[in-house]
Design goal:
0% strand, 66% helix
Length: 231
């Protein structure tokens, strides 16, 4: 098949544009209700050219899911390895997760609603990635318990509480709304950490310690630009 215009240095940006446009369509109409013809019209490509950039409609869904999980998991793993006490790492991870949600609302909507449309093989890959991220959160909670910052708990249940509070934010948050990512993370963690705190642990110190650590480490792991990551 002849290579479509844009192959070369412009190929990957064009491919990302197609994936982001598909995410917007799927978020608005649903994956099942959005046809290939509608995607072609939205990106200005014939069907053959579209399939050159993306092999199938399901591959678009795979790429949208990967654009959420691949960078999030990589950056979360780097945050979990920072040399600072566990509660500060959890606070940084909270902000990272909310940043992902706010920056990629269309992708997150598709990620939450349409993953069951994937084939069993692709769905298994996605579930494994989700579990890997859950493990990062659970391990940090366990480290906070071991450090005496959090009370003894079922860390899996604690992980679910942490993620439930964060993950549902996509349903109502607006990027230009009254609460930014930093404010939301501060409030979420204040609620969670007070509930998780071990007797005698002063959760009011977490914000100041996080700010000091951030100021001393300007190269903290961050999410990259809003792009679609390769599956």
């Amino acid at each position: 098949m002849p290579r479509p215009p844009g192959h070369g240095s412009a190929f990957e940006p064009r491919r990302r544009e197609i994936i982001d446009t598909a995410a917007e369509l799927f978020a608005r109409r649903g994956y099942a209700a959005t046809g290939i013809t509608e995607i072609c019209e939205a990106v200005g490509l014939a069907r053959g050219a579209l399939y050159y950039y993306i092999g199938s409609k399901e591959q678009l869904l795979v790429e949208i899911q990967s654009a959420v999980l691949v960078p999030l998991l990589a950056t979360a793993t780097a945050v979990a390895e920072l040399d600072v006490r566990p509660v500060v790492r959890l606070r940084l991870l909270s902000e990272l997760l909310l940043e992902q949600i706010v920056q990629r609302l269309d992708h997150i909507w598709v990620y939450e609603h349409d993953y069951r449309q994937l084939s069993p093989e692709n769905q298994a890959t996605l579930v494994a990635q989700r579990h890997a991220f859950e493990d990062v959160v659970a391990q940090l909670l366990a480290a906070a318990v071991e450090a005496g910052e959090f009370r003894q708990m079922d860390v899996r249940l604690g992980m679910l509480q942490f993620l439930n509070m964060h993950n549902h934010t996509y349903q109502w948050v607006r990027p230009t709304g009254r609460w930014d990512v930093v404010h939301l993370s501060r409030e979420y963690c204040a609620t969670l950490f007070r509930g998780f705190a071990a007797p005698g642990f002063d959760t009011s110190t977490v914000e100041a310690e996080t700010a000091r650590f951030r100021a001393a480490h300007p190269d903290l792991p961050r999410l990259g630009p809003v792009t679609a990551a390769p599956a």
